[in-house]
Design a protein that fits this description.
Layout (H helix, E strand, L loop, with lengths): L10 H18 L3 E3 L9 E8 L11 E4 L15 E5 L5 E2 L14 E6 L7 E4 L10 E14 L12 E5 L11 E8 L5 E7 H8 L6 H4 L4 E5 L18
Parallel strand pairs: 8-10
Antiparallel strand pairs: 1-2, 2-8, 3-7, 4-5, 4-6, 9-12, 10-11
Bound molecules: zinc ion (ZN) (3 copies).
One zinc ion binds next to loops.
């Protein structure tokens, strides 16, 4: 019974908790997540590199590959690279030597060499599995809103609803800006709603012109089971792509 849950957190800590859950979820979808140093409206800047042609994750670090046999030394094989070659007798020399162990020549050159075929290792730029050599860098800005399940203050009973506040100042007019609502149920399990500012405006419809929205008093309440009219945004992390 002593176990702490999201229900015990203060409002401020709960909002940090929501941000943490969102950042973790974003990283699962391949995004690198950054905190702006100073900003009141943007909680995260996220970015990722993807193939321009097929949208697969892109690896920016070049690969170390043998020119002759194609062996890839990039990951765990780096210590197998033979670093030196004797110019006089062509012996491949492991380790950091100044003299050829075979002919005693000091005429050694640095040439990263394959331990299996003796071919030269070169650094090549990453290529996508689809064959593309082009990547794009995507940046997005994210505003996180978090909610716990509401309960009736008087009876202490669950209302089975979530509530999210949005204000005119939240409506940043930028196609790269998104809202992520992090909804945490009574078992601390989060659900995420992902929407663009345009999505939000479309679903809000005329209530955007309502006086309560203008006065920063608009609070969207919706079912914690079906998410009501916001249901179409459930787990829509693809919208960020
Ligand atoms: Zn590709
Ligand atoms: Zn090789
Ligand atoms: Zn030699």
């Amino acid at each position: 019974m002593d176990k702490k849950s999201a229900q015990d957190l203060t409002t401020k800590h709960f909002s940090r908790f929501g941000e943490f859950l969102v950042s973790f979820e974003l990283s699962k979808h391949g995004w690198n997540v950054y905190n702006p140093v100073y900003d009141e409206y943007i909680d995260f800047i996220i970015h990722k590199h993807v193939c321009k042609d097929c949208d697969r994750r892109w690896n920016l670090t070049p690969a170390l590959v043998c020119k002759k046999c194609g062996k890839d030394f990039s990951k765990s094989q780096k210590n197998k690279i033979i670093p030196l070659i004797c110019q006089d007798c062509n012996t491949k020399i492991k380790g950091n030597k100044t003299k050829c162990p075979k002919c005693k020549s000091t005429n050694l050159v640095r040439q990263p060499t394959c331990d299996e075929c003796g071919g030269e290792i070169e650094m090549i730029d990453h290529k996508c599995e689809c064959g593309s050599k082009n990547y794009v860098t995507k940046f997005r800005t994210i505003q996180v809103k978090s909610s716990r399940i509401e309960f009736n203050e008087r009876t202490g009973k669950s209302k089975n609803t979530y509530a999210v506040d949005l204000k005119p100042k939240d409506l940043i007019e930028d196609d790269y800006h998104f809202f992520i609502w992090c909804l945490v149920n009574d078992y601390d399990k989060p659900s995420f709603l992902v929407m663009s500012v345009q999505d939000f405006k479309r679903v809000m419809g005329d209530s955007l012109k309502g006086i309560s929205f203008f006065k920063d008093q608009d609070r969207q309440h919706f079912s914690s089971k079906t998410f009501g009219k916001w249901d179409e945004f459930f787990n829509k992390f693809d919208k960020l792509n």
